[in-house]
Structure formats: structure tokens, C-alpha cells
Design brief:
Elements: H1 9-26, H2 33-37, H3 47-66, H4 71-74, H5 92-111, E1 118-121, E2 125-128, H6 129-157
Antiparallel strand pairs: 1-2
Helix pairs in contact: 1-5, 1-6, 3-5, 3-6
Length: 165
Amino acid sequence: MASHLTAAERAQLDRFLDDGRLEVVKTLAGLSEEQARRRLVPSLTTPLGLVKHLTFVERIWFQVVLLGRTRAELGLPEEVDPTFVPDPGDTVASVIADYEQVCTESRLIAADFDLDHEAVHRRFGTLNLRWIYLHLLREINRHAGHADILREQLLASDGEPVETP
């Protein structure tokens, strides 16, 4: 049995978060700029927009909630919907780079706190880092699933082979 299967709770949570983060990035692999921005559903959801949104999510939970920085200080919107909309200058490469950078920052921030560390969220109130990890696992993996389905639809509609990244 591999050691990560019996590792301590924190190591397992970190591993699962990183696995989910990687899956999100992989959904953009091989997509053209147009495909990554194409909307297939009535909502603002696109593959590129999902990664953009998850970049926002990482900043909220680690920089705002854990470090106490403000949305204004970080240039983050107050509403969630705009976080799904790529800027005109965004590219697949730039959105991935931003996401990977913020994930690195999140890892470094989280490393300074134990899982029982309490923080205050403006809507949920007091919660601990363990809850943040579990919430992020749920959110990242839900959106990875959305992105994977959109990827399949995009490739199939463009007559390209549908392969799992």
C-alpha cells in the first residue's frame, strides 16, 4: 500500500486538493482559445471561466478568510458571477498560470495554520481550516466535473476525438 493512503489527515487533504486542482487544469489541455471561451449552457459557465472562478475561490478562502485581507485590497468583485467571465486579454495559458500561482500561494498560506485554526467568513461565520479544505474539495471537484463535461461537448461538436486529459 502506498504511503499517501495511510498518511496523516493534513497530508491526505493537501494531496486531494492538489489532485483536484490538477484535474481542473487538465480540462483545458488542448482546447483552443475559442473552445475554452465557448458557452454551451445558458449560464456564464465556460471551461476557461471555471478555472478563472476557481482562482477567485482560492483567493477568497486563503487570502481573505485565513489572512484577513479584503476583496477590495485584492481587486476581487463582491459578486460571484463576474468571476466566471474571462477578461478580453485572458488566454488559456494566462488563466492556468494565474490559477497555478494562486494555488501555490494558498498552499504556503495554509501551511502556517493547523486544521483546527478558526477564521471568520462573512456569510458562514466561524469555521476552521479543516472545513475550508473540505469545502474546497467539494467546489473544485464539482467544477472539474463541469469542465470535463464541457470539454467533451466542445471536442465532440468540433469533430475532434474526445479523450480524457
